[in-house]
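Issue: ligand-bound run for flavin-adenine dinucleotide - logging full I/O for the record.

Environment: standard queue, default settings, no custom constraints.

Inputs:
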Amino acid sequence: MTAPMINARDIDFLLYELFDSESLCNRQRYQDHDRTTFNEVINTAKQIADKHFLPIRNKLDNQQPTFDGKKVHLIKELKPALDALQESGIPSATADYEFNGMQLPPIIANVAGAYLTIAGGTALGYSMLTTANANLLQAHGSKELIEKWVKPLREGRYAGTMAMTEPGAGSGLADLTTTAIKSEDDSYKITGNKIFISGGDHDLNENIVHLVLARIKGAPKGTKGISLFVVPKFLVSDDGSIGKQNDVALAGLFHKMGGRAQTSTALSFGEKGGAVGYLVGEENKGLQYMFHMMNEARVMVGSGAAAIAVGGFQYSLDYANNRPQGRLPSCKDPHSPMVNIIEHADIKRMLLAQKAYAEGALALVLLGSQLSDDEKTAETDEAKAHAHTLLDFLTPIIKTWPSEYGPKANDFAIQVLGGHGYINEHPVEMFYRDNRLNPIHEGTTCIQSLDLLARKVPMNNMLGYKAILAEFTKTIAAGNAEPSLAAYANQLAEALTTLNKTTDFLLKAMGTENIDLVLANSVQYLSMFGHIVISWIWLKQAVIASAALKEELHINEQQFYRGKLQAMQYFYRYELPQINHWSLLLTTLDDTTYQMNTDWF
Amino acid sequence: MKVLVPIKRVIDYNVKVRVKPDNSDVDLANVKMAINPFCEIAVEEAVRLKEAGTATEVVVVSIGDKKCQEQIRTALALGADRAVHIETEESLDSLNIAKLLQKLVEEEAPQLVILGKQSIDSDNNQTGQMLAALTGMPQGTFASEVKVDGDKVNVTREVDGGLQTVALNLPAIVTTDLRLNEPRYAKLPDIMKAKRKPLDVKSAADFGIDLSPRANVLKVTPPAERSAGVVVESIDELVEKLKNEAKVIS
Ligand SMILES: Cc1cc2nc3c(=O)[nH]c(=O)nc-3n(C[C@H](O)[C@H](O)[C@H](O)COP(=O)(O)OP(=O)(O)OC[C@H]3O[C@@H](n4cnc5c(N)ncnc54)[C@H](O)[C@@H]3O)c2cc1C
Ligand SMILES: Cc1cc2nc3c(=O)[nH]c(=O)nc-3n(C[C@H](O)[C@H](O)[C@H](O)COP(=O)(O)OP(=O)(O)OC[C@H]3O[C@@H](n4cnc5c(N)ncnc54)[C@H](O)[C@@H]3O)c2cc1C
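Outputs:
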């Protein structure tokens, strides 16, 4: 029997015990749904993962896309798999009925996506980017743009990309130089170079719609002068027929450490006088539109990272259950049978770490999906606003924590397999390589930490900060009410004291000290906050688990809940205490890195 | 032409089956359940007959507790038109299932009944044959190909020596083998439609059949675990063990 991709019992736990997803069906938007439709969708995703993506996962990794100077070549098995995915209706599942969606709650779509991500990796990227592209256009495009581009994107006839990054502008998009000049017919001529554009060229679809960030000639410098354009690979006439190739050229492909199913392209716009582009929304608001989608895009990155962590955990768990090697230190008899490595304490440590990271991260990203839903569909305006506040605040953590600890989980998965983890007969080394992108794109870890500390924390008189702390406090109270959890609840309460102290100190220091020095350890602040958020999520799970264990339970159920409690304990004993160290660096304004002279390296 | 497809809710084939500690039965508490794979093949075949224009209506039926409505929903999402749930809390043996189905066949008058050849939990391989006997309809079991031809159905059967094709007069009973087709998965719009398709719930008790069990399960035991190997010190010891313990050489 092969390893499961995900523990289905954990999905049930997260959806129906932790998040009460069934109650979503009371909302008007979801009134046609029930738990059975949710489970059926997840099952369909799992079957597509099993039938179409798992069998080609290895090949996609080993045979990267190639470019012969004219055309991109992908393995031929990819298109049928993506077509099957498209036909299933999953890519537009969360969209409104009128746009061929099924108004599926995002939290359910996230779980469906987890199965697909584990099996298909970045092959799913083609579809996910297309959906993101369509969502962005639908939110900010004119009626004409929506009519012309969104429809074929939703039908999967066209693919979509996000073309932001340039050779000279990655983290700092403010410095991008791609330019747009208005033509007589109100379209624009786009000129410039973009790099790292995922899915930037291929022939999986009839057409590719690039959403390009560019500066209109004469627009202000910095972020205030950036506009967003639709730039298609092929021009499309008003009757919808595909016309001649636009002035967009593939300059080359990048060869990546992981995520090899998806092309990563360098695109030249306007080598022959200017690519035709159509303005989305108003001039100079492009970055704002992009950022509008950013919360969702960042939850998506965290979700991918969490899913791959789960995949590696399940794989290495299965392996450890079946690999006999060595004996326990207490056993001196060479005639005795070897034990399966899962018996070794150190293997249990690495599996527990993975469980704590992966299931903690999965719970966090599902919370992110739920908040992104609640801010639109919660019953009251107050609840919507509250969800928005929490999501906005947590986004840097939802993006970063799974991205940082997902690859760490995968690193442990490799170690559990020993030499077998280092070779490509097992997927764990691929998981690691795939997952390693996540701390880089959609804002690097450092950029997220600056966003958290310098923007999100002080913003609106610390509204978001206070809101999340109130959530922590509620869970601490619930933990304290259960004697077996009181010690952990207290530990979390102490962590909050440390967090408050650290935050107070830093906010004051921002007003009085050298700001470069104050922000020098921003990543430590993000780590600290992230660990506290994950500790909170684990305590929430533990509260449910200990309540469940009070009942007469079937052995499988007992084991499941015991596992939750043990993973929580692991996180509180092995991980949470690290915040004290991070806090120390922060509250002493440790200047080791700041004072390091660039010439001393 | 109406096709009736009985489906059974069973333990998902991916789940590692465990036996209850008291050896009374297989342990089904909180394990993932699914449509029996052979029944799924039966649904697929019926839906294909409908898509080909041969069948006009596909009706699925499941017998069991309320939970088997989940599997009914799956079958409806795969393309069945409507469903009957015969509700009972008892776990019925093959003969009782066949008797209930017989009543339903009388009521629905399908031209074709397609069943799985067996369920992966109890592995009895009886229900289809019993239903054929009770209804007096001809049967084609272990089907790997089903072709309706006018008032006949040609069923290619997987038999020990190879393939055998039988021609049955309709109405007839077919039981599916693994290679008959590869079932589809439900597309999302069909999952939504399934919820709105008609589902008729009847109580098994209302069928006027004596449902007391004809067979009693005495004991369920898991297959013996392979015991650990031993390291022998010498070739002589190995030969000795093979002779006297394993008794595989003399
Ligand atoms: C596989 C892959 C797919 C991608 N897909 C897309 C895509 O589809 N569309 C798209 O537009 N882009 C895409 N990107 C680009 C991605 O978003 C950028 O790589 C990312 O924004 C980082 O920019 P950069 O690579 O130029 O690194 P740089 O910005 O040069 O950063 C290098 C290092 O410097 C640090 N750094 C930079 N600025 C600061 C600062 N102000 N303060 C502190 N530290 C700083 C960063 O944290 C990082 O560690 C993709 C990249 C990859 C690798
Ligand atoms: C690239 C590569 C090159 C190599 N080159 C050579 C070579 O040239 N010659 C050669 O002979 N071998 C070579 N090896 C093999 C390498 O030495 C083994 O992979 C290594 O010894 C680990 O053994 P294993 O892979 O069987 O893992 P296992 O022994 O199965 O270990 C799996 C996991 O179980 C843990 N574990 C195992 N036993 C215990 C125990 N008693 N207590 C606690 N934990 C335990 C391990 O720490 C590990 O985490 C190579 C391997 C690789 C990947």
